[in-house]
Design brief:
homohexamer; alpha/beta; three-stranded mixed beta sheet; 45% helix; globular; Enoyl-CoA_hydra/iso (chains A, B, C, D, E, F); Enoyl-CoA_hydra_C (chains A, B, C, D, E, F); Enoyl-CoA hydratase (chains A, B, C, D, E, F)
């Protein structure tokens, strides 16, 4: 399938999604928004891959939200003159945030490979990914404050759980750039590369490594880590028990040992597709 | 628009949704599921009404989930033989639960008018409504345990916050029926009526009363009550501040006073429709 | 000390606070607000009593917030035309809510003795008290919705934890009255009396009973109950341990046994006054 | 096995535990404490029954903690004279609370059949049970405040989630008795009986009904209800998914339908015993 | 206004608060405590500035609590010999902690510029600030353990959310010093400077940068970051919606774009002062 | 007492526990599991030491769980073929997790001194310790994913609160090694040493430093830090008040000052042993 803002390539159980509107600095246009949601929902439902790499093209990873489309006919009203419209801001933001929540809910890990500027809405998106790699010239910028508003799509919610809060405060109040090397030192970024090519190759290599593991165990780990971030240790340990009771698979353990013994790569089942009770082609009797 | 399982009637800002498959005891068939979701999303988005009454037809409010449609081609796999399928149970349940969550998230109050049996999935649905009225012969039954399974669509999550936990335990473990009068005494039901006609009329009357109030203030109240149920008093008081800062409308207060002074019914604005950033008919430039 | 809106009487370790502006139906005027705060802070700090009864005079317990004082020079701006003013609503509400939070934080139980109407802000106040008694003609009314706004001083936060949520929804959306007998059945009110005199006497009697117990054990119970309402059972059991480690007093147990053995009333120490580090008359050296 | 303070009888998958020290009003002596813990751990581990009824003998269900054993050589030091001893109160309380937590963690429902006084520690225990039945002459009393201390074994933590908070406050501050009929009206007690015999028979009958259901579905329901009490609806719905992914068993559904079709009682597997990794008779190689 | 322990200077919307009792190493004397509270409340209420820098004088940022003032007449009793006094420790600590909570609640960012020792209570204060800068010779020391007590004014609560827990443990148990460079590497400190002059200038420069942004958007960011630290991502994203519905201001966005277009600095409104309902000069009618 | 898998040495109030099965790479055999639990319970109960160092022998700190003992007669069934067995996974995991929870609950700090590989279950254990030191050649590896399963004994719950989440994701999905130097930079490890001897000596030295402080203040700090990790700042500040009310000891403050004045080491009381109500040698009367 063809997209206007992305290319999507799936090989060897690894999906590679590329932001592909370099002429507009990959700004987040409503079309990009819609396509991203469609792609993530497809990956979630059909599980054609076991890991996802997101990279970009051109000068910047993304310049953030495409504000020029805001206007009288935009999805999100900017009319703040009455309480009804104001009250709608909350559910409409929830709706927009959902696009990045999908990254977090995806049953496979997501690796962001970031070059150039990761700006505004780009930071919201990058924070929702599991792992961030960067080029040496990459930087993060909470651009929202520079254009007079408060970031509201996840940056202020997720970044304080990724890097020390004092740094988040500075970035959020000054709109200054966080360069890749400091991001690496703080642990926001896992590794820094000299060129985008090296970075993307490393991201794909990491994704391939992940794709060799049992998807159900990877998915279980992803769920456990996200749950632990947001809950007490007591609650998270308890959740681990229920989670494991559903995902445990002795066969995977056996296959891992056999494969090692036999000097071959282990083979694990893909995750079955997700089905929806209401989506089947039922007819009333 | 015509539905196979429901009739929907909107008059004087009050929506009346009727389960209308009495021949099958209004069992929850996938088609009913899908139509319910569609209707709730439309009501949420377009806000053509200010209150919703849900009633039913025939012998029972609903006999619960239509289990006969479970099978090889059903949306929800019953195959519990492998870890992949098992692991899918969690997100697939989340997907099903979402239909009833929509009732809770709706920007208008929902009044369930229950006659006869409110059984199995019907209890999950009724618990997600804001207000429950019942006929004298109505009863609630956590039927799931009688067919060998654990209720999983909201009953066990919402009922303990509606009636004393000891009663929930008995209902959940024995599958016994909770009759309307005991439900009234425990506060699960707000009022009990001799006939269905009287009940539905009272429900519509209550809905009309609600429709005369400012929708933004009603919606604010609904959000605050649900939030308080799930959070500490400290957090809920704090949320009230942020919520009020978005929904406060001096004009409504003024209109209420003027109308009273002038001996007329006050007139308040409808909620504006919800828009989605990604749904507009944008084109890339 | 003399108050304009209250009388305060302390006898035998029981404080009796009476709303005493019957001509204005004890509406909550800024002066009443300020005096209430002053009185509660004094009771908290000096602990001249071991239980507090709040009753009222005239036709209604209180008719709620005195809205006629809202205006250009009021403390709380009603100007919702700009974001700065709107943003202030949250901290200003927190400030107002604090008056009723003080009731909850008071180191002694608070018994509300309610006659006639408990309306609007009165419900916010009554819900913050530990125990509610009522006359047969008393009623509760979330009046805010009848004047076009959302209740925001604690009613929507505390009431859902006092009575079943379905009833809260009805009261909040319709502005209907909850009569004393239904309030008794639902447990919002502990007992209903034929006359105000009987009720106030019963409230004072209950307060005297409480005043005979060790204040430190009563205070501990109050803290534990409020904490349990807002936290998980696991967290609340853990808190009980830390709380008890500070308040446990073997001497009280011994005194209770000795007094019983000797056929006399036990005598327990008053709580010592609370001091503030910054309030002493220190001088820099 | 013989116990000093209890009799334990297991028939037809129903366990019946009887407090059997009527001469001492079934006060909670350290020996009773230890035996209760032993019995609950055995029932938890071996699952020889599918439901547990706890009843008692003599004048009172239990007169509460046996305070006469507190002393120089008691397990719990009453020495509050130094910080070390005080600091120990927290973990030592946690240790004592654990006996009643076991009731809540038990993989089968627990029904308390209460006659006469349910006093002090008895209320802590009764609140940890899933269902409470009572005789007409039964009463609940938070006796701790009458002997100068704060209840600390679960009453103040669990009761506010079982009955309206205003009633809990009165009981906790005054030490007054809550009679069975009011407890029934408030939902603390599920049913009231004229005689203890009728009550115990009804409790056993309810237990037998529960024992006919699939134990894994009953246990799942118990876990879900307790979790919902202590968590937000959002978190509880999510937990339901993970829980169900571990306990779902299509076979039980099939068996329930087949049995109904064939006009016979369904047969479900017992829960397998719990094993402990560290308890096997391993030897180092 | 003149203070005994501080100088306060407000220029160009930037407030600069200097601890100015170098002879006593800026120990936290009750007078300092009271003045700090007064100053913060004034800044909060009147919003005469848009950012606050706190720096100090002499050898150390502060040597912590002035313990020499503890005594018979001190605000906080050190008498731990009876339960009443012990029980008071909790509310009295809450009262003291409130001074630093004010820093966190302030509607403008707070930058601590730390030189020399930041000791004992100084760490509690520094952790409550949004951003920390330091000189190369600065160090942090949880001095409390070195004088035999547990830090109780916020260090143990806030530091584990600022730096890795293992480091907090070491500092809290050993009383060792954390030097500026390690604090920088761990993210506790945003930047390290060679001299105090350079640091203070950088702090003021950062504050001026912040003061050029719209105060309502800065305040919104501060609220969102603090909320996210303490709540789940789900709850924090939801709060962002309500928060934004109150603070969103299209005009700021427009002004930012216009100013950029016109090559000038944008101009944004100050936050309006906070008013208190009960503080107006009302008279009863 | 002699152990098969450990040596335990207590000197000068410092306990040193050494994993001592180098021939099997200190894999976590059920016997090791049981002995570890016994030792921790003894240290907790009797408090013969004030700090605990855990180090190891041979090539690796530990190679993780000894999987070869899983089998038909193992404690933890690997049979995932039926719902009963699956349902048991949750409580059985809780039981296993409890061994490491004991480290966290211990009334003294625990310092892990890690050399070589800290693999699989070793990471779960290390994350439960308060402080981690490492040799330059040490590494951490979430080995579970390499053998086809999800780590379930605490790593995924505790590690996201110790190091940035993006790094946790990489380690959990790829099974790659985290070397000591990167662990130091991220704050997982407090210090890195050239040799194991230097590291163990530094660990013991740190433990001796801790042992010189008042144990009750150290324990209070440990409780506060762990509580803060898992709760909101608001809740944690409140807990600090209750905690301090139980552990505050003016005498320790006085002793610290006197000792300093007199140029000698201060002397503080040991924590008294923990007693259990049910463990005394009571007899029924």
């Amino acid at each position: 399938m063809a997209y206007q803002c992305f290319t999507l390539d799936i090989q060897d159980k690894v999906a590679h999604l590329v932001l592909n509107r370099p002429a507009t600095l990959n700004t987040m246009h409503p079309v990009l928004w819609r396509e991203l949601t469609d792609i993530l929902q497809m990956l979630q439902r059909d599980a054609p891959a076991r890991a996802l790499v997101i990279s970009s093209t051109g000068r910047h990873f993304t310049a953030g939200m495409a504000l020029d489309v805001f206007g009288a006919d935009s999805g999100i009203s900017l009319n703040d003159g009455n309480a009804g419209g104001r009250a709608n801001i909350a559910p409409q933001l929830t709706d927009m945030q959902q696009a990045f929540n999908l990254i977090e809910q995806l049953r496979m890990p997501v690796i962001a490979a970031i070059h150039g500027g990761c700006i505004g809405g780009g930071v919201d998106m990058a924070c929702a990914c599991d792992i961030r790699l960067a080029t040496a010239d990459a930087f993060f910028c909470i651009q929202e404050i520079n254009i007079g508003m408060t970031a509201d799509l996840g940056t202020l919610q997720r970044l304080p759980k990724l890097i020390p809060e004092g740094v988040v405060h500075e970035l959020a109040y000054t709109g200054r750039r966080l360069p890749a090397q400091r991001a690496l030192a703080l642990g926001l970024v896992n590794e820094v590369f000299d060129t985008q090519e090296l970075m993307v190759e490393a991201a794909l290599q990491m994704a391939r490594e992940i794709a060799e593991k049992p998807p159900v165990a990877i998915w279980g780990s992803k769920q456990a880590i996200h749950y632990a971030r947001d809950h007490s240790t007591h609650d998270a340990l308890q959740q681990m028990g229920w989670l494991q009771s559903g995902i445990w698979r002795t066969g995977n353990l056996v296959e891992a040992f056999l494969a090692k013994q036999q000097g071959r790569a282990p083979e694990f089942d893909d995750l079955p597709p997700l089905k929806s009770f209401a989506d089947g082609s039922y007819e009333l009797k």
